[in-house]
Amino acid sequence: MSSLTNLEHGIMSRYLVSLGYPEYRKLWLATLCSQSASWALIVARAALVLQMTGSATWTGAVTFAAMIPSVVVSPLAGYLADRFDRRTVLACAYAVNVCDNLVLAFLVVTGLIEPWHVLILSAITGSARSTQMPSGQALMANMVPRERLLNAVSLYQATFHGSRFVGPFLILVVLWATGRQDWVFFLCAGLYILGLTIVLTVKTASRGAMQAGKSREIFVSNMVAGLSYMYRHPLILSLVLLVVAHCGMTMSFESLLPVFAQDKLDMEGNAAGLNGFSYLMVGFGVVALVAALMLAGVRTEAVRGKWLLWLGVASGASAVVLAMSPNLPIAVVSAAAMGFAQGGFMTLSHAMLQTIAPDEIRGRLLGVYSWHTNGTMAGFNLVNGALAGLTGLSAPLILGAGGVGFLLVMTMSFGRIPLRQLYSRGVPAT
Asked: What pTM was estimated for this model as a whole?
């Protein structure tokens, strides 16, 4: 009994210590709900539109519509997260997604849904999610002591990657229980409602620091503070550019996997795309969650740097292996390997960014970071869907080419001194 207690204490003190802080735990649970809803939506919308239109181009357009608001909204969302109480900004974003998802579910159930409806509602969901992310991430940093920040960031990132498993898994549960695809959209709305309920109980107040004054010049200066800081900081700039390449080449697969499941894996039946996509995303997400939780216990900066390097290499290689998978079981295993590599890479890179970021501009810096990463994924999802739908290039070929491309980027990254030092030493102490 005593050994079991010691094991439990060891796990809590090393891997899950941040969940011991009640305010952080609330935000963590709310984020898990919202991200699970978001990934369930990505799967369900892509399969719905592919079934309605039979077009990979439409699938790419819907995924693009959900992600492109990051390009416009994220910098403004970062400004709002520093200008106003981050709790208020976060709650408003959740409320918008509750309403948006209830409308989508109603249209699907009544049979009134059209592809352009999905396109517009995806853009609204993406805008609210883009507002939610910088405010939630900036608020999170104020809920734990500084010495727990890396653990808190890793666990917070675990919700993003674990939701890739939870959301699609819940889709499978709904399909098994009801046999109806339309109920999946009510599932998404319910998850957002639960997340909003939890967010409304958060008591931690947090906001950034703004330059005083009401002139246009001061407003612009406040708006671009995060962008300016990023591009003047060699280590942050190098890290963000590496993550941007990673997002574009290896993580922009949402518009391809429904086609991949339908064509390469020979899934049959009306729900073939939804089932195949869900299985792949469950395999991806559950192992990405394991990677994030495992990395939460890594305490040495030099070890984190080496993990970043090897996970980047594995991310490109696993995409190539998935592209070559001949059947569903091997594809699921390959997707799991890709989930471990990509989930771990994104967890570490985000934790490193949060460690360097000053709290007074944290919201704006994270907003700009989301602008770069999510905007890249949106653009590449659109391009990938268009390539698969218009040019006749196969989904496996596009997936594999992206993996090879990122392996080349990882090789070239040694040419940048800040990244070379990051791989060998981790984030500097100052």
From this structure: 0.72
Q: Within its chain, how far is the Cα of 27 from the centroid?
A: 16
- 129, two tokens: 């999610």
Q: What is the CATH number of the domain that holds 57?
A: 1.20.1250.20
Q: How far apart are CA 288 and CA 338, in angstroms?
A: 8
Instruction: State the Cα–Cα distance between residues 67 and 374, nearest whole angstrom.
Output: 6
Structural domains of the chain, count: 1
Q: Tens digits of per-residue pLDDT, 170-216?
A: 877 887 777 677 788 888 899 999 999 999 999 988 777 666 556 56
In a domain, 362, yes or no: yes
Residue of 358 and 258 predicted with greater confidence: 358
Q: Containing domain of residue 77, as a range?
A: 18-425
Q: How many H-runs (helices) and E-runs (strands) does the chain carry?
A: 18, 0
Half-sphere exposure of 14 (CA within 13 A, CB side): 13
Residue 23 tokens, joined? 């305010």
Q: Is 175 left (phi over 0), alpha (psi -120 to 50) or beta?
A: alpha
Tell me which residue of 155, 157, 159, 429 sits closest to 297, measured CA to CA. Answer: 155
Say if residues 331 and 395 touch (Cβ distance below 8 Å).
Answer: no
Residue 393's φ and ψ, nearest 5 degrees, are -65, 140
Q: Is 5 a domain residue?
A: no
* SS3 call for 425: helix
Report if residue 430 sits inside a domain.
Answer: no
